Amino acid sequence: MIKRKSISFFTMKFVHYDMKSSKLFVVGMFAVAMAWMEAATVVYLRTLVNRINPYQIHPLPVAALPAWIELVREAATLLLLLSAAWLAGTAWRNRSGYFLFAFGMWDIFYYVFLKAIIGWPVTLFDWDVLFLLPVPWWGPVLAPVLIALVMILGGILLSRNSANRIDHHPHKFSWLLCAAGIFALLYLFMRGSLMVLSKGKEAVENILPTDFSWIFFAAALCLMAFPIFDTVFRSIKRRS
72-106: per-residue pLDDT in tens? Predict the structure, then answer.
């Protein structure tokens, strides 16, 4: 009887684990498909305004089309990723995990597909306009790729951890450090635009950043990844 119960327990655990893997796979495929659509759309837009490489004079010639269309498109992309995560998850924690995983996969494959379609970026250190909300974000391609890798790892941990095991989850202080890291990264990406914000819209649209603090970026990225470190440490501590 005990043996039968043990077999049943491990069978249910395996099925539960397999379902989580299947959901991650489906969410990942959705994100990759979204990345292709995003890359194709960006190729059309950059070809239209003659900005295959955005790092040149007048990098955001939005006069070619209404600016609000591009802004809404970016917001809609995030909404689609959120919707996929919401459908895949059952609680706020694993839904957050699926969103992080989807966002990371989407971001990385976006650059993979751009490279395949137009041969850009030439290197991982090429500058790119990452987002336009609320002001243009600038950074070398390598920066969002590294952030995406952290998001994928964090998303996997959040989506797999059992919701009823508190010791599986990072301490609240880890999340505070994570939030500090995210705000620091946002500032780093928007710093150039914010510095010329007082000079008006034209100055913001035409700025070309020339320096990127990798030391500041590394410190902020470590803060952002602190919940991952905390989770791994707690897992090792439990097993020892």
Answer: 888 898 999 999 999 998 888 889 899 999 999 99
173 with 108: CB under 8 angstroms?
no
Query: How deeply is 14 buried, as exposed, middle or buried, from its count of CB atoms within 10 A (0-12, 13-18, 19+)?
Result: exposed
Q: Do residues 31 and 106 touch, judged by C-beta distance below 8 A?
A: yes
**Kind and range of the H or E run holding 137:** strand 137-140
Q: How far apart are CA 227 and CA 184, in angstroms?
A: 16
Instruction: Give 202: exposed, middle or buried? Use CB within 10 Å, 0-12, 13-18, 19+.
Output: exposed
Q: What are phi and psi of 129, to 5 degrees?
A: -85, 110
Domain boundaries, the chain: 2-239
Three-state DSSP at 209 gives coil
Q: Which two tokens stand for residue 147?
A: 């952030």
> Using CA atoms, how far apart are residues 143 and 3, in angstroms rounded to an integer?
52
The pTM for the full model equals: 0.83
pLDDT greater than 70 at residue 6:
no
Number of Cβ within 10 Å of residue 194's Cβ equals 14
Residue 131 DSSP label: E
Q: What are phi and psi of 128, to 5 degrees?
A: -145, 150
Q: What whole-number distance in Å separates Cα of residue 240 and Cα of residue 237? A: 5
Rounded to whole angstroms, what are the CA distances from 31 to 36, 100, 148? Answer: 9, 11, 12
Which residue in 232, 47, 44, 54 sits closest to 153, CA to CA?
232
Question: Nearest 5 degrees, angle CA 4-CA 166-CA 96?
Answer: 100
At 136-173, the pLDDT tens digits run 899 999 999 999 999 999 999 888 765 445 455 677 88
